[in-house]
Specification:
The complex is a heterodimer of chains A (170) and B (323). Chain A is an all-alpha fold and 170 residues long. Chain A is 46% helix and 0% strand. Chain A is built from 7 helices and no strands. The relative contact order of chain A is 0.15. Chain B is 41% helix and 14% strand. Chain B is globular. Chain B starts with a helix and ends in a 10-residue tail after the last helix. Classes of the chains: A mainly alpha (170), B alpha/beta (323). Chains A and B meet through helix 5 and helix 7 of A and helix 6 and helix 7 of B. The structure holds iron/sulfur cluster (SF4).
Chain lengths: 170, 323
């Protein structure tokens, strides 16, 4: 029987995820590409369709590669190109203390701990390596199922909760 | 045996200043002892008092767990409030598993109002570890976001929303560390991040593997972390090799080397308990020598009555709290 954790892994995606430097190059390329594409789409597409295109393409591409959970506030490049929302505890700032001795997850015993992988991959990354030590603010749950790309381009929630950002700006 | 020094002499100090006594002990450079309260499955305050009484005389702080192992017991806020009322120095454990950010910030205010001065910010064991695995897991915050939020409430005097607090809580903030689970070679990075997020003290997971802990501390010292935080090493007596097996296979994050389990297995039945205490005392003596260790946190699950003996045999009894 295929386990839950295995069923979540798409063919080829593990191979790719273990090449974080390649993925970080793709990330930078696609960010630049989206910045160019966005105003064009806004102009040519009927209202509501830019969102559809973004959500759909993000779901398909990042879903395949990272098992993206569509949190709407992507930090992949700061987490070793490993989606932290795959951690059953939704941790955004590193592994919990329950990691098993074989490096697997406390909650899903046949899944490698997301954060053990993230830390290893972060160490291999050229441009964003080390960003894993940045303190990530609490997740804005109201952005669930929206497009992180669009949110980034439109500056949605760029500040985070007021109490938190007061500290970040200091 | 100079029991009750730490509680009675210090308790009127606390009512005078309203500051953390645990912090005061640590900042005075004394070797601190904290222990874990057995949170009762009961609605009777007397059960909290009785359990705290086993520890109070020899501890600088008593932790009240927040549904540890994802099992329901009396809430940590209530246990801490009762302990504060009785003159003990409670450490409030807050886990991210059961409550969202609104509930947690409310609890942080409430606990402070009830006299709690120390908070230990935890991720929390998953619901699957407990006896109600069908429960919803929350994890709205992670431990670091929780830690930073508590710091924001204290230092900026606001809630996460930015709304002002008329009286902010004055907390001594702590976090956990587990150097004993993968990736062991990177665990010091998590410690660094917790310190950056505002941790002033650290209580570690059970230490049964001193070499692994030493390596962790070496890396932490290389980063200069030992001067930035007060670190208390988690220790505890094992009742038998069976208890050890149970803990390392069923309790998330507990690592016990085979040598320790075998040592207990070889011990004759009637002296196993004594052997468990001896191992615990030995570990305390070893970690005490390590630079950057400022105390121990004793978790004597279901055998809290052994704590005074452990403290005494490890030579950690203190005559009077320093004024
Ligand atoms: S073991 Fe890793 S993946 Fe599993 S809950 Fe903990 S941090 Fe998340």
């Amino acid at each position: 029987m295929t386990s839950f954790a295995e069923s979540k892994r798409m063919p080829g995606s593990e191979w790719l995820k273990d090449r974080p430097r390649l993925l970080e190059a793709v990330y930078r390329g696609s960010e630049a590409g989206l910045r160019l594409l966005y105003p064009v789409l806004r102009r040519v597409l009927p209202a509501g369709w830019t969102e559809r295109v973004f959500v759909w393409s993000e779901e398909v591409s990042k879903g395949y590669l990272f098992n993206c959970q569509m949190c709407g506030q992507c930090i992949l490049h700061s987490t070793g190109m490993t989606c932290p929302m795959n951690c059953p505890k939704n941790l955004r700032n590193g592994p919990c203390g329950g990691v098993r001795q074989n490096g697997n997850c406390e909650v899903i015993p046949d899944m490698p701990c997301v954060w053990v992988q993230a830390w290893r991959r972060d160490a291999q990354m050229e441009r964003y390596g080390g960003e894993i030590q940045l303190l990530q603010r609490p997740v804005n749950r109201s952005l669930q199922n929206s497009s992180a790309w669009l949110n980034l381009l439109e500056g949605v929630d760029a500040q985070g909760p007021p109490g938190w950002s007061a500290i970040e700006l200091e | 045996m100079a029991n009750s020094d730490r509680t009675t002499a210090a308790s009127d100090w606390e009512s005078r200043s309203g500051e953390s006594r645990l912090r005061r002990v640590l900042e005075a450079g004394q070797f601190a002892v904290t222990a874990e309260l057995e949170a009762p499955d009961s609605a009777d305050p007397e059960d909290v008092f009785a359990n705290a009484a086993k520890l109070g005389g020899v501890c600088d702080g008593i932790n009240a767990t927040d549904g540890s192992g994802a099992n329901c017991h009396m809430s940590s806020v209530a246990c801490c409030a009762l302990m504060a009322q009785a003159g003990y120095e409670p450490v409030l454990q807050v886990s991210c598993r059961d409550r969202n950010r609104i509930a947690i910030q409310g609890d942080l205010l409430g606990a402070a109002a009830l006299g709690v001065r120390n908070v230990l910010c935890l991720t929390g064991d998953d619901v699957s570890a407990g006896d109600q695995p069908e429960a919803r897991r929350v994890f709205d915050f992670d431990a670091l976001q929780l830690l930073r939020t508590a710091g924001i409430m204290r230092d900026q005097g606001v809630l996460l929303s930015g709304r002002k607090l008329t009286t902010p809580p004055a907390y001594f903030l702590g976090a956990a560390a587990n150097p004993f689970v993968p990736p062991q070679d990177l665990r010091h990075l998590r410690l660094a991040k917790k310190i950056e997020a505002g941790a002033q003290f650290i209580q570690t997971q059970y230490c049964f593997d001193v070499p692994v802990f030493e390596a962790f501390m070496r890396r932490a010292r290389d980063m200069g972390l030992h001067g930035k935080v007060h670190l208390l090493v988690g220790v505890g007596p094992l009742r038998s090799e069976r208890a050890a097996e149970f803990m390392r296979s069923r309790v998330p994050g507990v690592h016990i080397p085979d040598a320790v389990v075998e040592r207990l297995a070889k011990t004759p039945r009637k002296s196993k308990r004594e052997e468990g205490i001896r191992i615990c005392v030995e570990i305390i003596e070893q970690v005490k020598q390590i630079e950057g260790v400022h105390g121990v946190h004793i978790m004597a699950y279901r055998q809290e009555e052994t704590v005074p003996e452990i403290v005494e045999r490890a030579g950690l009894m203190r005559e009077k709290p320093k004024e």
